[in-house]
C-alpha cells in the first residue's frame, strides 16, 4: 500500500483498510507541509463542549491491531518477515541505570532471537530529550539543555555497546526529523478535532512530567513514584481529547486480550480505561525546552506526546528518503511495532494514551505492550538516598556483559519484580555458565585433543537417538522458541541450561578418560561418542543461548572450530542435532568463561 502521491488525500491509515467502514473524509488534498505559517485550517480552536466530531479515524480500531495475516498491503511479504521491537526511549536527564539496562537487554535478546529465525528485525531504542526536568538537570550542571542531552545520550549508547546490545536505530527526540514528524502528527490530530484549548488546574509531578489525579497520589498529594509533593499548577494548555476514544479503547482490550502483557498489567489498564478516560494536556506554556507547538509559539509540545512518536521517527530514520510523515512508517517500514517493552511505571502512557494518539493520527496500533517489573537490590528499592544504586556500567566492567545479561534474563521472571543480590549473581553465573558450559566444554575439548588428535572422531548425527545427552537436547531445545516468543527469557534459559547441565553430568557418569585407557574397542568407541555428544550439545546450546549470551556463544563456536560468523550465521535451524562432522578440527582448548569472584566488600556486608 504505497501512497499514490506525496500528499495523498485523507483516508483511513489503518492497516486493514478493507475492514474500515469509514470512507475517506473530503479534505484538503494539498495540505501544507508545515504549520509555520498561520493557516486558515486553524481559524478557531474547537470548543471544549462540542459534542459532534468529524470522525475520520478508523472505526475498526480494534481490528487495526493488524495481525500479519490481516495486512492487506502490497508489502505483505515484507511485513510478514519483519519484526519490530522497541525499548522505552530513555529520559536523558541522568545517566543510565539498571532500570534502563534491564529492558534493553531483554529487547536485544528478543531481537537476536528473531534474527536467528531469519526475520528482518528492527530494534529501536533511543533517548527522550525534552521537558522541564531535563532543562533543570542541565542547569544544575552548568550546561545548556542541548549539551546535557548530547552527553547523556552518548552514555546510553556507550552502555549498550558494553552490554553487546545491537540496536538497529537509536532515535533522539531532539533531531530535526523527529520534530518535523511530531508537528505533522499534531496537525493531523488537530484536523481530526481532537485538540482544544482549556485552562487546567491540578497537581503536577515534575519527576513524572505528569498531572496526577487525586487517586494516583499518596496522602498530602505525594507522588508515589518520586515521594515528592506534587506542585499545584494552573495553566492554559492544549488538550488531547482522549475521552473520545473511550469506546474504541474498550474495544481494543475486549478483542485483543494480549495487547497488554502480562495479564496483571492488562487488568490494571482495563481498570483505568473502564474507570473513564479524561482528556489530557499536550502542551506546556512554561516549558521552553521542547518542540514548539504548531500554530502557537507560546507553547511547547508535552514531552510524552513528543517522545512516543520517537518509535515511528526511528523507523523512518532507517529508511533513507522516507521523509517525516508518520504514516509512511506503516508502508513496510516496520510500523506497527510487534512489541513495546516498557517498565510498568509508564504503562498508562503506552497502553492508554498512545493507542488513542495513534488512532487520532490514523495509524495502526502496536501489536503488544509488555510491561516488565521493578528491580530491587538486596530486597530494597534502589535509590540514591539509600546509597544502594546498582550501576550497570560498573557491573559490566567487573563481570562482563554475558554474566550480567544472563543473570537478569534468567533469574528474574520478565514481567515480575526481581531482586539483585551480588552473591546470588556470582553463584548462579558460576554454576551455569562457568561450570556447566565453560568448564564442561574445556574438559571435553582437552580430552578430545589428547585422545583424538583434536579432530571430531565421528558425525554427531550418528549418535544413537536414545543417547542421554541427545535425548535431553532434542527434548528441551524445542521448548525454547515458545519461551522466547512469549518473552519468557527465564524459561528459555532454563530449558537450554538443562541441556548443558545434562552434558556436564554425563561427562562425570561416563568418565571417558578411564574408557580411553581401556584396550577394548567398544570402550574407546563409547568414550569418543561421549565427547562428540557433549560437544554437539554445546554447539546447540551456543546457538539457542546466543540471544542471551552472544559473547559466550561466539566463543563456544570458535572453540569448536566452526567457520562463519558464529551462532547467528547458523540460524535457528542450526539447533537441529547433527551439526558436528567427523574430521572437524577443533581449536586449541582455552576457557570460554572466567569464573566470577565475589568482591571483598560484598562478602563483608
Ligand atoms: Zn512522580
Automatic annotation (TrEMBL):
Transmembrane segments: none annotated. Residues 84-214, 217-445 form the Methionyl/Leucyl tRNA synthetase domain. It comes from Chloropicon roscoffensis. This is methionine--tRNA ligase. It holds the Pfam family tRNA-synt_1g. Its EC number is 6.1.1.10. The keyword ATP-binding applies. Keywords: Aminoacyl-tRNA synthetase, ATP-binding, Ligase, Nucleotide-binding, Protein biosynthesis. The keyword Aminoacyl-tRNA synthetase applies. It comes from the Eukaryota. GO terms for biological process: methionyl-tRNA aminoacylation. It catalyses: tRNA(Met) + L-methionine + ATP = L-methionyl-tRNA(Met) + AMP + diphosphate. One of its GO terms (molecular function) is ATP binding. InterPro entries: Anticodon_Met, Met-tRNA_synth, Met-tRNA_synth_2, Methionyl/Leucyl_tRNA_Synth, MetRS_core, Rossmann-like_a/b/a_fold, tRNAsynth_Ia_anticodon-bd. GO terms for cellular component: chloroplast stroma; mitochondrion. Residues 465-602 form the Methionyl-tRNA synthetase anticodon-binding domain. Belongs to the class-I aminoacyl-tRNA synthetase family. It is an enzyme of class 6 (ligase).
